[in-house]
Design goal:
This protein is mostly helical and about 100 residues long. The protein has five helices and no strands.
Length: about 100
């Protein structure tokens, strides 16, 4: 029951955009069930919102191991990879202008 409560709280905090609380509740859920794909997915959503794409991608890859057929995880992974590529291109352009 505690696992469900932590996951539901995390979802509520996602709706309220309180990302630290999402991460906190997902941590508690993962303490109870380390292989919870749902907790990893929700924690990745919080990381993505904070623009911590590396952590978000790590959580998604781990969640994919536990739930390989979850379409939401697959879509999120593609989206995060695009955001990382976009950020790298932006950095490359910025640094290219400095030294070019």
């Amino acid at each position: 029951i505690k696992l469900s409560l932590y996951l539901n709280l995390a979802m509520c905090y996602i709706k309220m955009e309180q990302w630290e609380r999402v991460t906190e509740n997902c941590k508690h859920a993962l303490d109870l069930e380390p292989k919870s794909a749902k907790a990893l997915f929700r924690r990745s959503q919080a990381s993505e919102a904070r623009k911590d794409y590396t952590s978000a991608l790590e959580d998604l890859k781990q969640a994919k191991e536990y739930a390989p057929d979850d379409a939401g995880i697959l879509k999120a992974e593609v989206r995060i990879n695009k955001l990382i590529a976009k950020e790298k291109a932006k950095e490359k352009k910025m640094y290219g202008n400095i030294f070019g």
